C-alpha cells in the first residue's frame, strides 16, 4: 500500500470514523504485527492474538492522535510494542512456546529447526528480541525500529549486534554450521 493510500485511509478513519478504512489498514498490518507479538510472547499464539487485538482497539480509539510525523505502521507498531510491555509488566508470566504455534510456509524448515529458532529467539533479552524481530523478520530500517522502540539509532544497532551474536552462538552450539 502506498503512503498516499495509507494517509487517505487514516484520514477517513480519523475524520469520518470510517471503520471500513481502518479495517483495510488493520488487515494490511495484521500479519506483521502478529509475527512481532508472537516473537515477543515466545511463541504463545493465543497471547499474541489477544495483544494484537488489544493494540488494534487502542489504535482505533486513538486514530485521531496520529499526526503523520512518522509512517502509520511505525505508530501502529509502537502501540503493539507498548501493549506487549504493559502486559509483561502486569503479569511477568513464564511463557511456554510450542513449535506448532508457528505458522510457516510448507517449505519451511522442519519442526525441530523451527523449535530451535524459537528457543534461540527466547534466549534474547526483550529489547534485543524486538529489534532483531523487526529488522530481520519485518524488514524495518534501523531508523524505523528506533522510532518504534523510542530509543536512539545507535542503541538499535547495539541491540541488533548483540542479538545477532547471541543467535550465532546459540546455533553454533546447537550444531548448525554458519
Provide the descriptors you would attach to this structure in a database record:
single chain; 178 residues; Rna Polymerase Sigma Factor, Chain: A; elongated
Instruction: Quote the CATH topology.
Output: Rna Polymerase Sigma Factor, Chain: A
Low-confidence stretches: 93-104
Net shape? elongated
What is the chain-wise order of helices and strands? HHHHHHHH
SSE order and pairing:
Layout: H1 3-16, H2 19-40, H3 45-61, H4 72-91, H5 111-122, H6 126-137, H7 142-149, H8 153-173
Helix pairs in contact: 1-2, 2-3, 2-4, 2-6, 3-4, 4-7, 6-8, 7-8
Q: Would you kindly provide a written description of the structure presented here, covering whatever features stand out?
A:
With 178 residues, the chain is mainly α. It has one domain (3-173): RNA polymerase sigma factor, region 2, helix turn helix motif (Rna Polymerase Sigma Factor, Chain: A, Orthogonal Bundle). It contains 8 helices and no strands. The chain has helices at 3-16, 19-40, 45-61, 72-91, 111-122, 126-137, 142-149, 153-173. Helix 3 packs across helix 4. The longest helix has 22 residues, at 19-40. The protein is elongated, with a radius of gyration of 17 Å.
Amino acid at each position: 500500500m502506498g503512503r498516499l493510500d495509507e494517509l487517505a485511509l487514516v484520514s477517513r478513519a480519523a475524520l469520518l470514523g470510517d471503520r471500513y478504512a481502518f479495517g483495510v489498514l488493520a488487515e494490511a498490518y495484521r500479519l506483521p504485527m502478529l509475527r512481532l507479538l508472537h516473537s515477543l510472547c515466545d511463541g504463545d499464539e493465543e497471547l499474541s492474538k489477544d495483544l494484537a487485538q488489544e493494540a488494534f482497539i487502542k489504535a482505533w480509539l486513538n486514530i485521531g492522535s496520529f499526526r503523520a510525523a512518522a509512517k502509520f505502521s511505525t505508530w501502529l507498531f509502537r502501540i503493539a510494542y507498548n501493549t506487549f510491555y504493559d502486559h509483561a509488566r502486569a503479569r511477568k508470566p513464564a511463557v511456554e512456546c510450542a513449535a506448532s504455534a508457528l505458522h510457516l510456509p510448507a517449505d519451511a524448515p522442519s519442526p525441530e529447526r523451527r523449535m530451535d529458532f524459537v528457543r534461540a529467539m527466547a534466549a534474547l533479552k526483550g529489547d534485543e528480541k524486538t529489534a532483531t524481530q523487526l529488522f530481520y523478520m519485518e524488514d524495518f530500517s534501523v531508523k524505523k525500529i528506533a522510532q518504534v522502540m523510542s530509543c536512539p539509532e545507535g542503541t538499535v544497532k547495539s541491540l541488533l549486534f548483540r542479538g545477532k551474536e547471541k543467535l550465532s552462538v546459540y546455533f553454533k552450539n546447537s550444531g548448525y554450521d554458519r
